[in-house]
Amino acid sequence: MKSYSLFFIALTGLLLGSCSSRKPALIRQDLNTGWYVSASDTLATCPAEVPGFVHTDLMKAGIIPDPFYGDNEKKVQWIGEHDWIYYDTFNLAGDILNNSHIDLVFEGLDTRCDVYLNDTRVLAADNMFRQWRLDAANMLNPGSNTLRLMFYSPVEFIHHAADTASIPLPDPRAYLRKAPYHFGWDWGPELATSGIWKPVYLEAWESWRLDDVSYTVDSLDDDRAFISARVTLISDGKGKCRICIKDKGNGVQYAQEVISLEKGIQKIRFGFTIDNPRLWWPNGMGSPELYSLRCSVDDGLREDFRDDRIGLRTAELVTEKDEFGESFYFRINGLPVFIKGANYIPMDHFTTRVTEEEYRDLILDAHACHMNMLRVWGGGIYESDIFYDLCDEYGIMVWQDFMYACNMYPGNAGFLENARVEAEEQVIRLRNHPSVVIWCGNNEVDEGWHNWGWQQQLGYSPADSAAVWKAYTELFHDILPGLLDRLDPGRPYHPSSPRHGWGRDIAYTEGDSHYWGVWWGEAPFETYREKTGRFMSEYGFQGFPDIQTIEAFAGPEDKTLDSEVMAVHQKHPRGFELIDKYMERWFEVPESFEDYVYVSQILQAEGIRIALEAHRKAMPRCMGTLYWQLNDTWPVISWSGRDYFGRWKALQYFVEKAYRESILVFEEKGDSVLVYSVSDVYQPFSAILEIKLFDTDGKLYEESKRDIQVKPGSDLIWSGSRSGMVKMAGGEGKAILEATLDAAGDEYNAIHYFTVAKNISLREPGFRLQVAKDDKVIRILISSEKPARYVHLSYPGEDVWFDRNYFDLLPGDTIEISAFTKGNIQFDIQKPEVRSLWETGH
Ligand code: BMA
Question: Across-strand partners of 330?
Fold first, then answer.
């Protein structure tokens, strides 16, 4: 009788009521506190942070030194070779035990581990990218409970797997579904972590639970968006419930359905429309409008809900035969868009330390540099939700690799099944984000197989080759696209980046390209102009990080190019040698370490500027550029423009300039100096082009101004005689040509030199500065008597970010700089250190 009347009340409430609050259908108890960790073969124990890693716990407890400092990386290798035990004792909260379901959920375990709940083994985990959920209702005690996790050494595992494999694979890390970079990379330390790297909790529920909600935009025009919602429920039995989708912003109810619950997993699909849709636009194209939706499920007694933010946009990858070969470009809301971005790697080797603020700062920097895409590279991790949330908010599109890089992978059923579940979970987690515009199977696996000589090196027989390639095609041509068709139809899939290796001609006529002829191949920077493909998804050059960043890992005695500590923080086998070789071509190689650091940064910036400009100038044949790499996982000498602490190298300032909406690009052809405008604006606009010829003494020889129409794309707008200008200004090493584009007060200037920096006869600049403080911002006005190159301001020892740096100054120019610091300004603002190339002996 009691249950009947309850059912009656529930049903009446359900049918009559609007979406209202009931008892929560789900109770969550976090289990992230009170953990300890110890090495399996010692009694030494220390508190463990969850989410966290063994390394960071041992560091906190003072058991190991900071692995990022000095050459400590070498001293802590034993951690990856050990097994580790995590344990925790907990009591159940409230009346959680009264629920018929109590799931124990691990959002991420790194990596191979056995889980014991109250001394019974309940799980054997073997993939850090998967979530583990198990039914623990019958195993929990009303009083105290214990969890013990035995993590097995990842280093031992991969080597054992490699030693016992029937066909060897290029690198042993292939056998473990763990972030590849944890075992070292050519920009990262070898620190093989173990740990509970994502939250742990209990989820208690009765009768049913809301498992997932996904939204797809089926069609979109100016008047209306048709959306499909797919709701997944898990239920113990039959019943009725109402599903309701509301806009959290304006309260509009988009959909309401009463459905019959069935036992088991149930997928419900229904459509709704949004009138006068506000579109999601990438950075630079418009506002990235988001809709905050709440999907609530209510059976009259219990209610559960899930919040998502969706964006209304269409995203296509256009690969069509054309006059150059085959296109590779993105079309967003019907418009082709030139992609300006970078490759992204994890922000910290120990990713659990990254704060929300640090994620935001990185995405804000990408936004400030006019980027519209980041590629989440396949040797790292599938990023945290907050990363994609921020990309949604700031209009940064995401190229999402699956986590496979520079290796071949096993093809046994167990491995492939593990890979399938991992991919399904990640696709389900990320598919509602409008920022994600492409899935990519892997990084450089196809290229490696066809170009890097693995098969010969590993002594493959034809049968071995066939088996390893079959494993590849099964995963990347079959399993991944197959599950995407089912779970995320419509979002483009690209099996491998790049499509072809950079040594082949076809790499420049179709697909995306990773061009490493500069750096790996030692080709001059100017080669970037010839080796421009359809979409440049990788290319790069190393630079030292800021001196303050170097001082975070090196003592005064280590600050030399040949110190052991510096060698530990340069992971490329020929890194120093290559920097040196390129530096000799362009600059006087400085004697002092500090000057070398500075010149290495401008060398990197100059090299990549040539690439960025060449790629943009080649539009629409080339429709995107993602340089390698945005950021670092630790303080290191690497290809990044933004170092581990978020400090900008010269490259980052050059990127900010080269990615502006409309730019000017100089090029020399025969005896002509040409100026091109490159514009991402979809309509032509009027501007004034001003050209000035100086010499290095600052004398102005010629000046001209004219009205022009800046066309969309790339356009030749000026040309002059090279020999004429050189003669007039007194030689190649003396002439300086400046072009300025003024569009209704919005100014862009580009400066051309007629020879490499080491041949230019610079004079002492004679800087003039005016410094003032307004609230928390330092404002600096700077000018110089003579032309100055790569002017760099800093407050040594202080963490100050300048909105402009590493710029050239010409007589008559005054540059206004704003400088920011996070704390209070407690230093003498009147004395910034100003240096330029002249001070390094040029
Ligand atoms: C690319 C990347 C990374 C590497 C970088 C620099 O190929 O995919 O593997 O760090 O080159 O060598």
Answer: 317, 337
